Amino acid sequence: MEIEIEDKKDNRYLRRIEVRHRINHEGGRTPRRGEVKKLLAREFKKSENLIAIDFINTEYGKNVSSGYAKIYADEKSMKIEKEHILKRMKGGQEKETKAETKSIEKVEEKGE
Predict the structure, then answer these.
(1) Is the pTM of this model over 0.85?
(2) CATH code of the domain covering residue 93
């Protein structure tokens, strides 16, 4: 999975970077928000907790997705983010940790 930054805008008043990106996920499914956060965090050298993803859209019949994300300077400046986006950010993290826990439990059961 590769990420390409199409447009980057430094919004100093809101203390964030607004990013339009494209993701090539050849032979795979549409990337999840958590996966995109990891890619953006690595690209911009920021914490995943400071990244809010507005949307990820996959082009019909292609393995290319485009999206829009906001990377904040600190947690205090994230308070202006829309409430449903913040809930979505927290919900995704909980789902991923539950899935990781289940996969660890399955491995432990096989090992016994």
Answers:
(1) no
(2) 3.30.70.330
